[in-house]
Amino acid sequence: MATVKRYPLIHRFLGSASEYVVHLNRGEVRHQGVGQAFWFRPDTSVLSEVPATDQELPVLFHAVTRDQQDVTVQANVTYRFADPVLASQRLDFGIFPLRGGRGEAASGRQQVGAIVGQLAQSVTVDLVATLDLAEALEAGVGRVRAALGATLAEDARLAATGIEVLGVRVLAVRPEADVEKALRTPVRERLQAEADRATYERRALAVERERTISENELASQIELATRREQLVAQEGANKRREAEEAAAAALVATRSNAERREIDSAARAAELERIGAAEATKEAALMAVYANVGRDVLLALAMRDAATNLPSVGSVTLTPDLVTGLLGSLTGRAAGTTTGAAGGGAAGA
User: Fold this and answer.
1) Cα–Cα distance measured from residue 67 to residue 133, given in angstroms and rounded to the nearest whole number
2) Where do the Band domain residues begin and end (predicted)?
C-alpha cells in the first residue's frame, strides 16, 4: 500500500511494488509506474493506484436448464489491468484526494467484480438454457469454460476498460440438493449392488476355499488311514514271517539236535559195542588165563580185587589154619618149581 506524507503546501508519495500509480496534475499524467516516489501539490494533483498483479475473481450464480432445472455454477476468473492508465480513467482507483473528503476507499475493484461477474453470468445463463440437466452435469463444465473464455477475452467493454482476462476455471456445475440426491441414488444403488456382489463373491470364494481345504484335509486323513492300514498289514506280515522263520529255525534246530543226538547215540552205541567187545575179549583172555592157574592164585586174585573194593582195615587177624595153608601152598609151589628146573637141566644135558 502506498504512503502519502503530508507537509505544508506539498506532499510526498511513496509507492509499493504491487501497485501501479497514476499521478494527474491539472489533467495531465505527470508520474506513472510501479514503486514511484515523487513530490506533488495536493491542490492540483489526483493520485490513482491500480493493482499491478493478477487478480482472482470467484463467481457463483444460478442458471436454469432447458428442462427447467436449477443448477449452480461455480467459476473463477483470472484477470489483470493491461492498461492501468486507461483503467484509472474508466474506474475509480483514486487514493488522493479521497472521495467526498470523508475517507471513503476507492471502489474500482468492486466495479471490476460487478462487470466481470455480470458478463460471466450472462454468458453462462444463455449457455445453460440450451442444455438439459443431464447434459449440463455431464459436459457443462467444459462447455461453460470454453464459452466464458472466448466471450471474456473478446469483450469490447473489458478491452475499453483496460482489463485483460487471463483464464477461466469452472469448478462445478451442480443441481439442487434434492435433485442431486435423486441423481445419486441410482449410482449409489448400483455401487451398493456391486459392493454386495463383491461381498457375495468373496464369501463364495471363501466358502469354496474352505471346502477345498476340508476336502484336502479329508483326503489327507484318508491317505493317512490307508497308509496306517498298509502299515498294520505289513507289520502283521512281518510278524507272521518272523514267526514262520522262528518256527522254521526251531524245526531246523530240533532236527539238528535230533540228528546230533542220533549220531551221538550211534557213536556211543558203536563205542559201547567196541568197549563191550574189548571187555569180552579181555574177559575171554582172562578166563583163558584163569583156566590154567591154580585155585590158590585165583583166591589171591579174588582177594586182591576184593581188597580194592573193601573199606580200610585197621588190623588183620591171621589164624594158624590160614597161615598153614598159605605156607603149604607156597612150599608146594617152590618144590614144584625146583623139580621143574632140575628136569629141564637134565634134558639139556
Assistant:
1) 7
2) 19-199
Query: Following CA atoms 210, 213, 215, 220 in sequence, which dihedral angle do they give, to the nearest 10 degrees?
Result: -160
Which residues share a beta bridge with 218?
none
The residue assigned the cell 594158624 is: 320
The phi, psi pair for 92, rounded to 5°, reads: -90, 100
CB count in 10 Å sphere of residue 316: 5
Instruction: Identify whether the C-beta of residue 274 lies closer than 8 Å to the C-beta of residue 280.
Output: no
> Is 339 a residue whose pLDDT tops 60?
no
Long-range pairs of 152-155 with CB within 8 A, sequence gap ≥ 24: 152/77, 152/79, 152/116, 152/119, 152/120, 152/123, 155/119
pTM listed for this prediction: 0.54
Tell me the residue length of the chain: 349
Residues of the chain with CATH 3.30.479.30: 54-175
The pLDDT of residue 292 is above 50: yes
Residue the block writes with cell 497308509: 227
- In degrees, rounded to 5, the angle at the alpha carbon of residue 191 between the alpha carbons of residues 186 and 194 is 125
Dump pLDDT digits (tens) for 107-125. 888 999 999 999 999 999 9
**Domain 54-175 architecture:** 2-Layer Sandwich (3.30)
Q: What is the C-alpha separation between 92 and 162, in angstroms, rounded?
A: 13
Site of grid cell 463467481: 59
